[in-house]
Design a protein that fits this description.
The protein is α+β, with helices and mostly antiparallel strands and 174 residues long. Helices cover 16% and strands 32% of the residues. The N and C termini lie far apart (40 Å). The relative contact order is 0.22. The model has no long low-confidence stretch (mean pLDDT 89).
């Protein structure tokens, strides 16, 4: 009995340290996908894919983590034109922005035009780096701003996968 309980506790500690991390969302930069105070689980040591939501060490604030959506992978060309995302010259739909586009309809575009060349003098996302944006673009401090910039893959803490609080937000994070 004691051996079984000890094993279970060690298993939970192992999973918590090396696999799952609970995170509390702070701020409005990911509204309406994630909301301020929402509690989520992130998974460590996963392959980061385009449009994943990640947590990472804030490059501009000590002892702070940010949570944003991955838009650009290493080697990608990123451009926004007329509120449309282009990655490697191909237009991409962003259905996760629909609610915010309706909310901010009077002040469109939701995302102002930019290219990586305009922001950083580079054509592509550098190797080992990611370009991230918040879903609530008008209030998000993200890779469009020099103080945040590209996110180093070593700074990524986890990939957001599951919401568990509040109860009306339980479920997989899309």
């Amino acid at each position: 009995m004691v051996n079984g309980l000890l094993f279970f506790v060690l298993l939970l500690v192992f999973l918590r340290i090396f696999l799952f991390t609970p995170v509390i969302v702070k701020g409005d930069s990911m509204d309406s996908t994630l909301v301020n105070g929402q509690q989520i689980l992130t998974v460590s040591h996963t392959k980061i894919k385009r449009f994943d939501i990640i947590t990472f060490l804030a490059p501009d604030e000590e002892n702070t983590n940010y949570i944003k959506r991955v838009i650009g992978l290493p080697g990608d060309e990123i451009e926004y034109k007329n509120d449309i995302l282009y990655i490697n010259k191909k237009a991409y739909a962003e259905p996760y922005l629909d609610e915010n586009k309706n909310k901010y309809a009077a002040s469109l575009p939701l995302t102002n035009d930019f290219t990586l060349t305009e922001l950083y003098g580079l054509n592509k996302v550098p190797e080992g780096m990611y370009f991230v944006l918040g879903d609530n673009r008008p209030v998000s401090k993200d890779s469009r701003y020099a103080e945040v910039g590209f996110i180093d893959e070593k700074a990524i803490l986890g990939d957001a996968r599951f919401g568990f609080f509040p109860l009306n937000r339980i479920g997989e994070i899309k």
